[in-house]
Every structure is written in C-alpha cells, then in structure tokens.
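dumping this here so i dont lose it
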C-alpha cells in the first residue's frame, strides 16, 4: 500500500540510500545501453538490476534499478543529463525515485 511505500522511501532517505527506476524506450539502434550507462558511470550511479528487450517492430525497452547514493550530483541533475542523452539518441528516458515508482504502479 502507499503508506508502507512512503515509509520505506523515508527510511531509505534517512539511511542515506537513493534508489531509482530508470526506463528507456525507443527505436532500437546501436549504442543505447552504452549511452545510458556512460552517463550513470560518469556520475557514480551503480546499476543494481537491468532488463532489456527488443519488442516487435524493433522497439527497444530497458528498465534498471539504480543506486544514486554515491553520486556527487543531484537526482535532478542526473535526470537532466539523461534527458540530453535521450534527445541525442532519439529515445525516451525516465528516472523515478523507487518509492514514487512503486506507489504509481499500484494506482
């Protein structure tokens, strides 16, 4: 339920953890994973889990669970860098706090 997700998110913040869900969708092409992971590595974001699929009509989809705890820049700055990369590659990249993602998936 939402209240337990919110409590979980608050406890994670208190412990200094910052986990996020990153999704990528777009037409498949060479270099999508490399482009995204290059940004994450540059800002010390650790990928905890990754799943990638090519769907019908060459639609690329990827979802990651990432730990932003050790990043020297803010969540918003990481999103801005990912937005720039998304525009360059012609894909959509979304970054959401894990607790927000969990709460939204229950609606």
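and the seq i came up w/
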């Amino acid at each position: 339920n939402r209240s337990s997700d919110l409590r979980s998110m608050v406890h994670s913040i208190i412990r200094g953890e910052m986990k996020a869900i990153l999704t990528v969708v777009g037409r498949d092409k060479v270099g999508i994973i490399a482009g995204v992971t290059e940004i994450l590595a540059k800002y010390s974001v650790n990928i905890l889990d990754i799943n990638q699929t090519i769907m019908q009509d060459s639609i690329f989809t990827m979802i990651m669970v990432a730990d932003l705890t050790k990043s020297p820049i803010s969540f918003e700055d990481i999103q801005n860098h990912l937005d720039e990369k998304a525009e360059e590659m012609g894909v959509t990249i979304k970054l959401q706090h894990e607790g927000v993602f969990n709460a939204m998936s229950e609606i």
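The CA atoms of residues 9 and 20 lie 11 Å apart.
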